[in-house]
Write a structure and sequence with these properties.
Layout: E1 6-14, E2 24-29, E3 34-41, H1 46-66, H2 78-100, E4 108-109, E5 111-116, E6 120-126, E7 130-135, E8 138-141, H3 148-154, H4 160-166, E9 185-190, E10 196-200, H5 202-205, H6 210-220, H7 224-237, E11 244-252, H8 261-270
Antiparallel strand pairs: 1-11, 2-3, 3-4, 3-5, 5-6, 6-9, 7-8, 7-10, 10-11
Helix pairs in contact: 1-2, 6-7
Bound molecules: manganese (II) ion.
Manganese (II) ion (MN) is lined by residues 39, 201-203, 242-243.
Length: 272
């Protein structure tokens, strides 16, 4: 991989006001520039197991790929493949555990991941957890939910409002651990100075409107820790019906070594 950027993270998770357990898992690793959020589902406590496996296996997979020993995988463009491989491995681990252990039967989890490079960020997701980008005071949803609601909208059956009213909420159409293979959506995005990336479980966006998220990031974004705590507080203030996890990330662009002109042109062309 190319040199790692300096990334500042904030990570806040809360069980919410209605659930006994927190089945979300999240991890940030500043040395790798990596953030992960997973929202587990399943019977008694098994959602917790699924999301914990997901986060650990993806973290390990990416750490291994970023280790200098693996020089063959040093290009930015390989980052998408590393992401797919690691998430695929997590899928297999959860799937096998779900089938081997009766108490884990039917467990699964969403995942969202952001891996920062010197000039960009690789985003990946499965399920209905989300990644947003906050740039120039504008909030943009970067991921498309793998949910029944979203499919109804995409296929033109319903408008967004109709779908919300007529489709069971939180029915995911893709998750880790449910089938032997999983399709992972991966995208590479260039970074601009000041960008804030938000990774969250649906406990945030079901409780807090995008507009309110945007206003909160505008008001508190200078301090990521305050902003993350404020978003979780709002989710609970608005009902706290689900576990809520908020991870905020900001890459410091001027700390990034730019390399020679060829490196810069190459990373520009790769979009990474
Ligand atoms: Mn949830």
């Amino acid at each position: 991989m190319s040199s790692r950027p300096q990334v500042e993270f904030s990570n806040v998770s809360h069980a919410g006001l209605k659930r006994k357990h927190n089945e979300d898992s999240a991890v940030t690793d500043a040395s790798m520039g990596l953030a992960l959020v997973a929202d587990g589902m399943g019977g008694y406590k098994s959602g917790e197991v699924a999301s914990a496996i997901a986060v650990q296996v993806v973290l390990d997979g990416i750490r291994e790929a970023l280790t200098p020993v693996h020089k063959s995988r040093s290009a930015d463009s390989d980052q998408a493949q590393v992401m797919r491989d690691s998430i695929g491995r997590a899928n297999t681990r959860i799937y096998n555990a779900a089938n081997a252990l009766p108490q884990c039967q039917g467990m699964g989890t969403t995942i969202v991941a952001a891996l920062f490079t010197a000039t960009g960020v690789t985003l990946a997701h499965v399920g209905d957890s989300r990644i947003y980008r906050f740039r120039d005071n504008q909030l943009k949803q970067m991921t498309n939910d793998h949910s029944l609601v979203q499919e109804m909208i995409d296929r033109g059956f319903y408008s967004a409002e109709e779908a919300q009213a007529n489709t069971p909420k939180n029915l995911v159409t893709r998750a880790l651990g449910v089938e032997e293979m999983v399709l992972v959506d991966v995208q590479q995005q260039p970074l601009a100075a000041g960008d804030i990336f938000l990774l969250c479980s649906d406990g945030l966006n079901d409780m807090v409107q995008d507009e309110e998220i945007s206003l909160t990031l505008g008001k508190y974004g200078a301090n990521l820790s305050t902003a993350a705590q404020e978003l979780v507080r709002l989710a609970n203030q608005n009902g706290g019906k689900d576990n809520v996890t908020v991870v905020l990330a900001r890459a410091t662009l001027d700390s990034i070594p730019t390399g020679g002109p060829l490196t810069r042109i190459k990373s520009f062309l790769m979009g990474g």
